[in-house]
Amino acid sequence: MKRTFIIFFVLIGGFLLYSNLSSLSFLPVGLSKRTADVNSKVETIHIDISSVKTTIIPEDREDIKADLKGKGKVEISKRGDTITVKYKRKPFDWFSSFESSELLIYIPENYDRNMNLTIGSGDLLFSGTSPSKPVHLNELRLNVGSGDVQLASLALDTFEGNIASGDVMITSLSTNRGTFDVSSGEVSVKEYKGELNADVSSGDFFVHMNELVNSIDVDLSSGEATLDLPNNADFKLRGKVSSGDITNDFPLHHSTQEKRLIEGTHGSGTHLIKIDVSSGDFQLQ
C-alpha cells in the first residue's frame, strides 16, 4: 500500500512538472512569443482571455505586445490576416487561484480594422483616451461568458455584443450599427449613438442616448430593459406585449394604447422604435 502511494505522488508530481515547463524561466522550452508586428495585412486582432484582469492600452507603436504579471501563460500568434492574443491558466494554478494575475496588452493607437474580444471570466478594460479622442475600429465583436467588462470612448462602424453572463458597462459608444444579444447578466450602455438592435433573453439591459439618430429594435423575452432618450427625441413607437409591461414616459400623438399594444408618435416620427415583449418589463423614459 505504501509503495502504491509513492508511485501515485511521483506520477502527480511528474504531471505537474510537465504541464508547467513553460512557467519555469530557466528552461528554454518555456519561451513563448509576446509581440507581433501589426502591418497593413492584419485585418483582425483577437483577444481570448479567462480568469485574469486585462487592460488593453492603445499607444504610439507599430506592434502588439503583452505583459503578464502573475500566474498563467500568454502567447501571441499570427495566422493569415489575424493576430491572436491568448491567455490561460495552468492545471497547477488551481491550487493558487487566490493569487490574481494582471495582463497588459498594448496595441497601435492607429489600428482601425477589426477586433474580437472573448472573455471567459475575469476583468477587461478597453478605452480610448476620451470621448473626443476615441478608439476607431471597423468592427468590434464582444463575447462575454462571465466576468466584468468596461469599454469606453469607442467609434465603430459595427458593434456586436454577445453577453451570456457577467457585468458589462459601456460609456460613449458611437456606431453605425449596434447589436446586443443578452442571455443573462447586467448590461449598461451610456452615451450610445447609432442604430440599435437588441435581443434580451434574461437579465438587465439599460441604454442611455444623448441623441436619437437611427432606428431601435428590442426583443425582450424576460428580465428588464430600459431605454433612456433625450426629451427632444423624434420617433414613432410600435410596442407589442405578450406578457409583461411596456411603460412609456413620453407624450404621444396619433396614439393607440391597449392592453397588449402601444403605438404613437413623438415629434415628427423620424426614427422607428419597435419593442416586442414576450415577458418582462420594458421602460421608455
Could you explain the architecture of this structure?
It is a single chain. This protein is mainly β and 285 residues long. The protein has a single domain (2-284), classed as Pectate Lyase C-like (3 Solenoid), CATH 2.160.20. 6% of the residues lie in helices and 57% in strands. The chain has 1 helix and 22 strands. It has a 22-stranded mixed sheet that branches. Mean pLDDT is 88; it is low at 15-32. Residues 43-284 form the DUF4097 domain.
Any descriptors?
1 helix, mainly beta, Pectate Lyase C-like, 22-stranded mixed sheet, elongated, single chain
| Number of beta-strand segments | 22
Mind summarizing the main beta sheet? 22 strands, mixed
Q: Identify the overall geometry.
A: elongated
Poorly predicted runs: 15-32
**Roughly what percent helix?**
under 10%
- In CATH, the architecture is 3 Solenoid
Secondary-structure element order, N to C: HEEEEEEEEEEEEEEEEEEEEEE
Q: What is the number of domains?
A: 1
Q: Structural class, judged by helices and strands?
A: mainly beta
Which topology does CATH recognise? Pectate Lyase C-like
User: β content, as a range?
Assistant: over 45%
CATH class (first level) name? Mainly Beta
Span of the ends, CA to CA: 72 Å
> How many whole angstroms does the radius of gyration measure?
23 Å
User: What is the mean predicted local confidence, pLDDT?
Assistant: 88
Helix tally equals 1
